[in-house]
Each structure stands twice: as structure tokens, then as C-alpha cells.
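quick one before i forget lol
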Amino acid sequence: MYDVVIIGGGPGGYVAAIRAAQLGLKTALVERDRVGGVCLNWGCIPTKALIRNADIVNAVKQGGYWGLSFEGVRFDYSRAYARSREVVDRLVRGVEFLLKRHGVEVLSGEGFVAGRNRVAVRPGGQELETKNIIVATGGSPRTLPGLQPDGRRVLTSYHALNLQELPRSMVIVGGGAVGVEFAYIFAAYGVEVTVLEMLPRLVPQEDEEVSAELERAFKKQGINVMTGTKVEAAQVTDSGVTLQLGGPGGPGSLTAEQVLLGIGIVPNTQGLGLEEVGVELERGWVKIDERMRTNVPGIWAIGDVTGKLALAHVASHQGVVAVETIAGLNPPPVKDYADMPRCTYCSPQIASVGLTEAQAREAGYQVRVGKFPFRANGKALGLGEAEGFVKIVADADYGEILGIHMIGPEVTELISEGVIGRLLEGTPKEFGWAVHPHPTLSEAVKEAALAVYGEAIHFFTGTAAGRPAQGSGG
């Protein structure tokens, strides 16, 4: 009899398994492929490795700016692909080692809920008895009618990460994190890239000013962006794909060698046995409470399969909350997923936590906004990466920081300052008083906090101290 059996070895499942073992729970992990799940094997990690290659390629292209000259430079994407797989393999081995050292039993196969306290492993037919089941089966790429992925002309992110030779042209359907990251990678290697987004702006979940800044940056990079545009029909041929489009400019068409779908995910719950034991689903997503419990005692769910927020670190945190609750501890419940940081790793990078300015106003807050551009930051100028800004949205009445939104160099690292600040209920005054080392990119966070009250030192806001700032700079 196990204390916990976890179905799915992604960043939610394997973290939950390790934490459960640390707490003395007898734990088994069922995984049909490699531990690490989509994130480690075919998502977060390989894309970041490829993005690093793209950064270097772009730096070489700008050699004149740095006083460098080259002859006969060749950019070998197959080597970028190989390096990304080397990074993945090293990390997978690391996770396997950690699971083994913690005494987690790892079973290869597909896990199914055979009863409230039983997990079947197929095709072997083994059944595990357990006090608790954690479902961590993740999601699969969403498709569109007429655009069924074939790995040749119509791609998912999985297919895109398997490419070793790139096409001359590609249309990316979806302007969220997946779409813009691949757009940046492929454009760096000379692919003619068009990004289609059905909503009015790129990265539509981010602050509007961040979206506008990214669209400007992509235009400079030669990436074509079509927002407010929907795919009405598609024709796939041996030579490429033709899309029929509807949008603000009326109907039109677009042809490319390949189409990449980046329009979200669907939950991996079909045929899992959840409904047979009474677990409540909503459009396929597993319904959970703030401690990851389903409506059936002893059955829990974490990660993308819950439909809360499809991010690896969210899944990992949910896994810890679930197993600590199982172990009788009392971890803080997850009440507000807006407190989870969100990162996009194209260039310029995007990072945020909390409410956007529009969301804060819609929620009824009286808002103050402070904004500081990286073009006024010495470290950013020295790096040659001065695009973007840091924006802080604060409650005018109580000084609570409602949201922090960044676009620019290494902001996916800087956002952790905002996460800790919100956790500790910091105010713009406290962020502004905190001494930040000079010269660093982090000074932009301090200056944005000062700008909330019109007190930024290194950029003129034109706003008197003590009066609501509506944003400045950038």
C-alpha cells in the first residue's frame, strides 16, 4: 500500500514525488515517457536553449555595433537543435537521480484511475493500491479544424522542437508565449515569420503597454504581426499551407511552407478513469479546491490538467501544496493565481505578476502607475539592450502593489523581486527605499517604484510628488 501514487512525471508530478518522499510518504510515480514531462523534454527547457542560440546569432548579426567583423559566417540550426537536446538529456538524468536517491518508485507506462484507491499501469497490467492519487497528466496542444498536425506542414510545439532544418517561411497561429518565443527563434535564423493572433494584440494576457512594446520590437526584427486575425479555412498541399484569413482588413490569404499552432492546450483526462470514480470535470479540466483536492476524497490534481495556469512553476507549487496537505502539514493555500509570476522568453523578455493596469481599474481600484524605461538604465545601455520598461501598478489608497509588468533585458530574472515584494506586502515606498546595487538592471525596479509618486531620480516623469502618475517613459 502506497501513501501516494502520482500519475504523470512532469514538473508537477516529479516535484510532488520528491517532496512526498522527503516527508516520509511511500511514493510511486507513473510516467509513460521520460521524467520531466513536456516542460523539460519538449517545452520550457529546449526552447530556452534555442533562444540562447538565437540571442547569439542576433549578436553576431549586429557585429558592427560591437566593433566586430566576420567573413563567411554560417548559422547551423542543426547544431542549435543538438545542443538543446544535450541540455535536456542532462537535466532528465538529474531528475532521475533525484527520484532514485529519494526512494521514489518510478514505473514506466500509462497510469489510469482504476478505483478510488487503485492505479492501473498499462500495458503491463500492474495495479497499485494507494491512500492518495495525484493526477498530473498535463495537457496536449490544441488544434484547429483543417489544420491537423502532421509534423511536416502543420506543426505543434513538439514538432517545432524536433526541426533540424528550418523552412523559408512559417506562419505561427497564436500570439501568446509559445508563439512569440518560436517567432523570435526562427526569425533569428532567417525564416520569414508571420504571427497571427485572433485577439487585438500580441501576448493578450499581459499589460497593454507591454504588448505594444513587443509589437514594436518584433517589427524591428522583421517579424510580421497580424492581430485581430482569425484563420477561417486552410488548405494543406505538398509544398505548403494556404490560410484563409478574416480580420479588420477584410478577408485575405497567406501561404507559407509550414504552419505552427500555438493556441493553447487541452487537458489530458480522456480515458483516465476519473469520471468513472466520480471526479468532477469542467470541459475536461479537473476541478480542484485551493489545496488541490478534487471532489472525491483521496484524489488530487495538479498542473496543466487543472486548467488554472499552465506554467511549470505553478504545477510544481501545486504539487508541494498537495503532498504537504496529505502529510498533515498546513501549507498556505493557493487562492489567487494572479500571484504566480508569468514569463515569456523572446527578446525583449516579458515578465509580470499581479493585475494589469486595466484589470486593476476594472476591479475598482484607484490606481497609481510608475514606469521607468531601460533606456535610462546604465546597465541596460552597457549591455546594448535598452528596449522596454518596468511598470508598477499600485493602489492609490493603501499603497498596495497590485501588479508589476516588465519588458526588457533579463526581466524574467528581475520579476522575482516583485514576487517576493507582493508576498511580503511591500509598497512602492519600500521598494523605492530598498538600496539596489549600481549599475544593475534591478535599479529599474526601484526607479519604477519611485515613479509611482513622481520621485524617479534618473528619468523625468513630469509629475509632482504625491499625485497619481499615469505612466511615464518607455
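fyi The first strand starts at residue 2 and ends at 7.
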